[in-house]
Design brief:
mainly beta, 3 helices, seven-stranded antiparallel sheet, ten-stranded mixed sheet
Length: 483
């Protein structure tokens, strides 16, 4: 709307004095009516109900303080505002809240400014705008500081017993140092500046009887964090009279070496299991991956909705007849998991010698729904789970899921004995079972298998829980000794 003064008709008619007086009277009455309308039309309130200042009027406003430089902690600040107009206060910063959101003219108002903690690696800045109508009449800047800190790409690590090294990344917003007081560990570099820095941690071989532990301390400013390190022992031992004839210590990188034959089988191949075994890369991930001195058997759900996992066989065409077979394994967690370390006979004539007549040796099995209960079994034509006659034994092993334990088989012409951490699990003899093939088919070469199944007749007997995926079975080594 355009506001202008009430226009005066200057044609008074000088020859008629009474007409002139009447026109002047009408002008005064009209002016009295128009002025209030002009005042109303030339002022307004914005959407917040704050009165816009009259054009060309200089707004008087004071704020205290005029800026803030708080530290990184969560806290409340106080801003005092006094203006000769109604006002509102606003900010676009999501880490700030304001109460109250405005005030009235000529009244001192205290605004509480609530800040969240600054967990970022740098200062952050916000502007509080004090507005009247559509006009910003004052701006207050807040620059919140940050705490110097650093973090490593891992908070813990497990190392194999052999001499090894592992690379981690230190990310920091200031100068940092990293240290360790254990002579079997070395670190390079031991200090750095703001940014991301690769750090190499080297461990000498652990030839002791037990695993060993260490702590690495990362410091930046007043903040310290700890990286816990565990190293398994590297003690190649077997019962008296046995010598190592084959092993995979997984001290290389990439896919398993050529001694292993990797299965590629669709879901439902055996035991109504739900996983697809594959050697292929799925969504950029491998089901069987060797790194950091370990074999990782990864079970995960692909983008196509299928469950993928890994199974591999050591020298299945030749195998080994009799010996001491051992693996050190960290079992996965989750309802639906079914990890196993077991053996099948080499070069089976499946037509004339089908399962279970061919024989099967289960050194270790576990199902996640019965966490930490590990078992050993043998299956033959006469003794098998199809007719509920299998020879089996189960024990509870605290920490089987999430920690390394050794699982072993001692096997000769007359007996089969399985062990868990050196303790007998299952012991059977030919004399007790019988010497015929349907009772004792364990008089030929067998080969070891490691795999992680998902679901199936046993692994899924109580259902599966896909929220447990992805999950991983970790193998430190597989060793075979013979007399």
């Amino acid at each position: 709307m355009i506001c202008r003064p009430f226009e005066i008709n200057n044609n008074f008619g000088l020859s008629n004095q009474s007409t002139m007086k009447r026109n002047l009277k009408n002008y005064i009455v009209g002016l009295a009516i128009a002025l209030p309308l002009m005042a109303t039309a030339c002022s307004s309130k914005d959407d917040d109900g704050v009165q816009n200042p009259t054009p060309n009027k200089q707004v008087s406003i004071t704020v205290s303080p005029e800026s803030f430089s708080p530290d990184n902690s969560a806290q409340n600040l106080e801003l005092t505002v006094n203006a000769d107009v109604d006002w509102a206060i606003r900010t676009d910063a999501s880490w700030i809240s304001l109460r109250p959101a405005g005030g009235v003219k000529n009244q001192s108002t205290k605004v509480t400014i609530t800040l969240t903690a600054n967990t970022e690696f740098d200062n952050r800045t916000a502007v509080l705008n004090i507005v009247s109508g559509s006009n910003t009449i004052k701006s207050v800047e807040i620059v919140q500081g940050y705490a110097m800190s650093a973090y490593a790409s891992v908070s813990s690590m497990m190392l194999s017993g052999e001499a090894s090294e592992k690379e981690i990344t230190v990310t920091s917003n200031g100068p940092w140092t990293i240290s360790c007081d254990y002579d079997w560990l070395s670190i390079s570099p031991t200090s750095g500046e703001k940014g991301e820095t690769p750090v190499i941690i080297k461990a000498s071989a652990n030839e002791g009887e037990d695993s060993r532990e260490a702590n690495i301390v990362l410091s930046c400013g007043d903040n310290n964090s700890t990286i816990s390190v565990s190293q398994l022992n590297y003690n190649v031992s077997a019962p008296a009279g046995y010598s190592l004839v084959w092993s995979d210590e997984f001290n290389y990188e990439g896919k398993p070496n050529s001694d292993w034959v990797i299965e590629n089988q669709n879901a439902g191949w055996v035991n109504n299991e739900l996983q697809t075994y594959t050697s292929r890369e799925i969504d950029g991930k491998l089901t069987l991956e060797v790194k950091d001195g370990f074999l990782y058997i990864n079970c995960f759900k692909g983008s196509d909705g299928k469950i993928y996992s890994g199974r591999m066989n050591a020298k299945p065409s030749t195998g080994w007849q009799y010996g001491y077979v051992e693996a050190r394994i960290n079992l996965p967690k989750g309802k639906g998991t079914w990890p196993a370390f077991w053996m099948m006979p080499s070069n089976v004539d499946w037509t004339n010698d089908p399962w279970p007549h061919c024989g099967e040796i289960d050194i270790m099995e576990e199902v996640g729904v019965d966490a930490n209960h590990v078992s050993s079994s043998v299956h033959t034509g006469k003794y098998n789970h199809m007719i509920n006659t299998q020879k089996t034994h189960e024990m509870y092993l605290e920490g089987a899921e999430g920690n390394f334990h050794t699982y072993a088989l001692e096997w000769d012409e007359e007996k089969l004995i399985t062990y868990v951490d050196g303790k007998v699990q299952l012991s059977i003899t030919k004399a007790a079972l019988g010497s015929d093939h349907d009772s004792w088919p364990f008089d030929r070469a067998f080969y070891p298998i490691v795999n992680l199944a998902w679901g199936g007749d046993w692994g899924g007997y109580a259902g599966v829980d896909e929220s447990a995926l992805p999950t991983t079975m970790i193998v430190d080594y597989v060793r075979i000794f013979q007399k």
